[in-house]
Give the backbone structure.
Amino acid sequence: MKNDSKERNKWKVRIVDSINKVSNLITKPQRKLMNEVIFGILSSGSVQISKICRALKEPTQLHHTMKRLSRMLGKHGHITWEAEDLLLHKIVPQLTDDMVIGIDPGDLNRNGSTKSENICKVRDGDKGTIVNGYPLITVVARCLKTQVTLPLLTRLLSSTTASYKSENNDIKQCMLRIGAYFKNKINPLWVIDRGGDRSRLWDFWIENDIRICVRAANLRYWNWSKGFGTAQQIAKQLPLKHKGKLKKNSKKTVKFGITKVFLKEHPDTHLYMVIVRHGKQQPLVLVTTDKVRGRLQGEKLIQSYLSRWACEEGFRFCKQGFDLEGVQARKLNALQNLVALSTFAWALLATHQQDGKLLIEKARRQKPKHKLIFPFYTLLSGLQLLFADAKTIFYNWWRKPKPERIPIIDDIFAQNGQLGPIL
C-alpha cells in the first residue's frame, strides 16, 4: 500500500509539472481543468465527461462537477493549441533521424449524435460507409531500433466550419507545425498510406524538400526508363533482383525491385520506386524521395513503411483505450479539447513506459514473460488499478481546507452535560 501511495503521488506530480510548463496565456483555472481532464482520462480509460468526473472522486455532487468541466471545455477552445504545444515541446526533443513519422487521416464516427456542433459527413474506415462525424489526423513517431512509439499530434476537424479548406491543407498544416519544432536539427522520414498519393501533396513535399515515403495508389502514370505506366503496370515489368525481410527478426524473405521514376510535373526530381512481392495478389509499391540504391537501403525503406502500423495502432488505442467514439460532448471546442488532451495523456504513458514496471505488474498480464510490443493498453490498465483505491485526487491540492471551528463556551458545557453560563 505504501508503494502504491508513493506511485500515485509520482503520477500526480508528473501531470501537474507537465501542465505547469504551459504558456502564460492559460489562466490558473484552465490549468486545473487540463490537469483534471488528463488525469480523469488516464484513470478512467475514457473521454466521457461522466467517467472523468467519477475518477476525480471529489466530495461534491457528480452533477456539479460535470457541469463545471463541460462548461469550461466548451468555452476555452485555445486549450487545444496549448496542449499541442506542450506535447510537441515534450516529444520532439526525443526524435532522431532514424525515426519514422507516420501520418494517417482518420474519422470519428458520431452517427448517433445528430445535434453535435458542426457535424459533417465522413467515411467510416471500418465499414466503408458515409456517416456523420468528424475527420481526424493522427501523427505518430516510431523508432525502428528501440521499437518505441511516441504520439505527436491528433487533431479533430470539421469540414462545415468557415476556416476549413481541404484534407490536403490539413495534412500540410500538421506537417509544417511539427516540422517547425525540428529547427533544422533532424530530418526524419515521413510515411503515409496510399491515400497520400495526390498531386498537390507531391508538389508540397518536393517544393519543401521533405523526406517522404508513400504507397502508390495506382491512380497516376509514372515516367520511368521504359516509358510510362501505372504502379502495377511497372510492377509487372520490373525484375525483382533483391531479397529482404519485412521485419528485422523475421525468417521469411520477400523479393523486391528498385527503379527510378519521376512525375510529369517535376521532371527534374528523381524519385525511387520499390516494388515488393509479398504473396498477395498485388505487389506492394512504395515511392520515396530518398535515394534507394541496393538491397540494404531497399530493405530499410520497406521496414520503415511497415512501421507505420504504429500510427494505425495508436489511432485504435485512442478509440478503444480512451473510448473516443463514446464521447458525450456536443460542442466542437469541447470535442477538440478532449481529443488533444487524450493525446497528451497517451504521451505521458509513452514518455514513462520505461519506468512503468509497477503499472505492468498491476495490470496482471496473461503472458508476463513475453516482451511488450505496444505497451500502452497494459500501462493504462495498471494505472486504472493503481488509482482504484485512492480516496481523493486533486481536490485537497486545489482548495485550501476549511479552518477548524474553535469550540465556544456553550459547546464545552454541552460536552460536560452542564448548562451554559447565564448571561
Summary: Residues 156 and 353 are 26 Å apart (CA to CA). Residues 2-82+331-398 form one domain. The radius of gyration is 26 Å. The chain is about 40% helix and 20% strand.
